[in-house]
Amino acid sequence: MKFKHAISSEISLSYIVTKKKLTLIAALGVTIGLAVFVFMNSMMKGFDRISGESIFKSVAHIRLYKDDEISKPLPITEKDSAIRLIINPRIVPENNVLVNPEALLLFLEKQENVTVVSPQTNLTVFYNNGKSQINGTASGINIDAADRMFNIHSTMVEGNLGDLKNVQNGIILGVGIAAKMNVKTGDNISISSSKNVVKVLRVIGLFRTNNSNTDKSKSYINIALAQQLLLKSSSYITDINVNIKDFENAKFYADKFSSLTGYKAEDWKSANETLMAAARMRKIIITVISFSILIVAGFGIYNILNMTISQKLNDIAILKAMGFKGKDVIRIFVQQALLIGVMGIALGLTVATILVNVLQHVYVGGDIGYFPIRFEPSMYVRGIFLGLIVTFFAGYIPAKKAANVDPVSIFRK
Question: Are the C-beta atoms of residues 316 and 411 closer than 8 Å to each other?
Fold first, then answer.
């Protein structure tokens, strides 16, 4: 059996050596297919990574809040079976405030896989500076917890986040607001809340999240100041943000926390459905394109082996007459396909590495900086696996045809 294995390998190598041009063309097909597959999927992963980093600068994995409630009909009692209807139901006029938020915070902190819990009080405000007036949202935060959650200090382009602890009337503005109002760190502006409370605040810093909507509307202030602007007590909390170890499991934990607390818990994917849909579309398009190119490369090997088998029918008939079985013939051509595949894969990985290395040093400017691509070992492993699968079947299908060759009918011709 070992003798036949050695002969099979020699025959496979001889077919490759004697048809160098065809072998090179087939290997180049695999090279291009694999290089495109690894490069495009690494690029897609880079886009997903930078998109996620951008989202999590202003969005928590899970947001817990009290949702609006629609008025419901009164319950039907046993004595009174009359049908009750509400025409044109409205939102029940309740405050969207969390009851006993301190206990809620402690409860959430003790939950499994929870990494950070941050209370927040959001309010709609007008930023005023002279005749300039911009509407936006001020987030009253606990500085330490919010920084651990959103990594705010990394987005600071001016000032120091820690100063917000010491300056009670301080405010950190998005760069878009600062540009529109022509203010800088150290200037004073006034903000007015929906309760007609006006406060003069000192700009102690500017941040940039790379999300233009956020940068043009959002600011950070002390949570106590936010409560004063709304004329509320120190227990007034509108949102509790929760981060977990694996943000991909946010949906599961959001449902769990909603069930445990009775409040609405929204995961980050549900809060950014449009972005998620765009990411899914991008993933599908890139996967289909890269996989199609790999399949086309497999067809190249298939055609070349099919042509070889047609030209080598007499050789195959002689081998079978010498005692080679169908599986031995299959082995010859599958080995040939895999050898071509291995050559193409090695070259493809080299080309993909060069492309990634070149592009990751290309500065695209703006908020992104350098092109968001880097070496992704998982994509290389996946590319090798798929490349071998495609080349195996590209060799196996025509090899099956060769295995069924009847030597007697060939010799009669």
Answer: no
Nearest alpha carbon to residue 137 among 216, 79, 59: 216
Regions in the chain scoring below 70 on pLDDT: 1-6, 69-95, 366-367, 410-413
The DSSP secondary-structure symbol of 372 reads S
> What's the pLDDT tens digit per position in 17-64?
777 887 888 888 888 888 988 998 898 888 888 877 778 877 889 999
DSSP 197: -
**Helices 273-311, 326-359: inter-axial angle, 10-degree rounding:** 140
Which residues have a Cβ under 8 Å from the Cβ of 156 and sit 6 or more positions away?
Answer: 172, 205, 206, 207
Q: Distance between CA 183 and CA 385 in Å, rounded?
A: 56
The strand pairing partners of 118, in sequence order, are: 241
Could you tell me which residues come within 8 angstroms of residue 37 by beta carbon, excluding any fewer than 6 positions away? 290, 291, 293, 294, 348, 352, 379, 383, 386, 387
Q: Determine how β-strand 369-370 pairs with β-strand 363-365.
A: antiparallel
* pTM for this model (two decimals): 0.68
Q: How far apart are CA 97 and CA 191, in angstroms?
A: 22
What DSSP element (H or E) covers 168?
none
What single DSSP character describes residue 68? P
The angle, 0 to 180 degrees and rounded to 10, between the axes of the packed helices 377-403 and 20-55 is 150
**Residue 48 Cα distances to 13, 41, 248, 373, angstroms:** 43, 10, 13, 10
Q: Write down the residue that tokens 């606990």 correspond to.
A: 142
Question: For residues 324 and 403, what is the distance between their CA atoms, to the nearest angstrom?
Answer: 10
